[in-house]
Fold these 2 entries.
Entry 1:
Amino acid sequence: MSAAERHQGLILVADDNESNRELLSALLGAEGYWVVCAADGREALARVENEPIDVALLDVVMPRPTGFEVCQAMKSKPKTRLIPVVLLTSLNSDSDRITGIMCGADDFLTKPVNKHELLARVHSLLRLKRFTDELDNAETVLFSLALSIEAKDPYTEGHCDRLSKYSVALAQRRGLPEDLQVVLRRAGIVHDIGKIAVPDQILLKPGPLTQDEWNVMKQHPVVGERICAPLKSFRHVLPVIRSHHEKLDGSGYPDSLKGEEIPLTAQIMQTVDIYDALTTARPYRKALSPKEAFAIIQSEVKKGWWNAELVDLLERLVLEVGALIDDKLEIVPRG
């Protein structure tokens, strides 16, 4: 059955008891849902990995692995973490519910399952899934738009991907929490999306820009912020987009922010952006080696432009543990 035909959604029922599987399948099927079943945890994980599951109903005491473990595994993977999970259990202790919450469960149903409660929970979670799918689709459109802008200039090929990875690595070294690492991963892709408003004759000009052209170019962070603003999941990405061209001494753009007025996430992005720009070939110069690039960046630190701590951290990441970055964090140093 195609996605268009299963208008109600695809529900996974995972339970080692065949009678329970048949009962839940009959209840859900009668409401127009498409149901797939799994007899143990291993089969459940295979289902969610290979099929477009919309809601997963997991028996807690399944073998190989348990419902708790399946839920935790699903919530730990980007591909499956947004699938709503309902744990089915005859266990009623607070500790069991806390365990389920810690595993990332979205809801609980107590056995024997009440038909009306089951259908109400599934309907509610399907609405949530459709909403998150729409968010995911919107992010995909933004990422595609950003990469299409990058593709205009052969000299910037891979720039967004490198910035995404470098900024996350630098954030990890700096000790930033995981949620801000996600912000930087997204910001690395869309940080220059506002360049869609910059005419190609300015964006691709091989020589120096005139003052009027430079004034147009300096508006791209503001435009980028405006493009991404409607997406609420990007609310913490917006300051990175707007402020990654600021300088600590206030000589940057678009707002002439100084020092700690510039968000730390934006400072991280600007640090890796400068490094990548210097170590990427341009029509007017060859790519610099990491050593040459950091010599220039450190001289600019002395001018008061960049965060010395972040520059030092990035330099150690690239020059001291470059192989580790490549193997573990998928970052490929230039030069």
Note: Residues 152-329 form a domain with the Hypothetical protein af1432 fold (CATH 1.10.3210.10).
Entry 2:
Amino acid sequence: MIGERIRLGRKMRGFSIIRLSELSGISVSKISQFERDLKTPNSGELIQLANALGVTPEFLLIPSTVNLSEYPDKGGK
């Protein structure tokens, strides 16, 4: 989930992983792991990534899509 948003932010800015690494101070390998959801950034890393991408940390935490099947029908059916 967060990985998809990091990748989206990076692509929106036109950054390579290398450029994001330079701007954020986070290694290329860590960013790659974040984008593949193999690791989750800690709060400090999340802020570093958000600052480098020019987005809020909340942007990185919000899912790109919402699966409505995750929410039970509240219409009384």
Note: Residues 2-60 form a domain with the 434 Repressor (Amino-terminal Domain) fold (CATH 1.10.260.40).
